[in-house]
Amino acid sequence: MTRDLRMLALKVYVSYGTMWTIFHNRLGFRKVCAAWVPKQFTDQQKELRMGLALQHLFRYQEDPAFMKRIVTGDETWCHHYEPKTKRDSMQWKHALSPPPKKFRAVKSVGKVLLTVFFDVTGPLLVEFLEHSKSINSDVYCETLRCLRRSIKN
Question: Considering the entire predicted model, what is its pTM?
Fold first, then answer.
């Protein structure tokens, strides 16, 4: 913020203090950060998630130990990049303007697939698959075998 105002002040031949006063007091601008925008679910996806959550709640009410038997997993691509810091992505906006939106970057120089399985106590299995390798039934079956061994231990 200070750097931007200083550069602008130099370009229009005024002091930094004058530029700050113009931006803040006269124009009503404030420095704001972009907010990360979460995924938007469809109504059908919301209903499905609600139904599954209610099923788990009912089973938990019948048997509190049920939660200890749930194993879940997820996979995501981990990209090799340095995203802009929050400070780097700040921009001048009028106080009444909506904050800018910042979408997560999807392209990168390289990436690996991260697969994580966990239960109520924490991670059970963490695996990385290189970008050049393909996920096929053999790879996934081996992952599930590793998961089974992790659960038994």
Answer: 0.51
The number of beta carbons lying within 10 Å of the beta carbon of residue 30 is: 16
Tokens, residue 59? 């089973």
User: Residue 62 is which amino acid?
Assistant: E
Each residue of 43-58: pLDDT tens digit? 999 999 999 999 999 9
**What is the C-alpha to C-alpha distance for residues 136 and 73, in angstroms, rounded to an integer?**
17
19 vs 7, 29, 93, 131, CA distance in Å?
10, 11, 15, 49
Q: Is a pLDDT exceeding 70 seen at residue 109?
A: no
User: How many CB atoms within 10 Å of residue 130?
Assistant: 9
**Structure tokens belonging to residue 101:** 């939106």
What tokens does 27 get?
Answer: 């124009």
Q: Are 79 and 105 in contact (CB under 8 A)?
A: yes
Task: Centre a 10 Å sphere on the Cβ of residue 124 and count the other Cβ atoms it contains.
Answer: 19
Q: What is the pLDDT of residue 125?
A: 96
The two structure tokens encoding residue 29: 């601008």
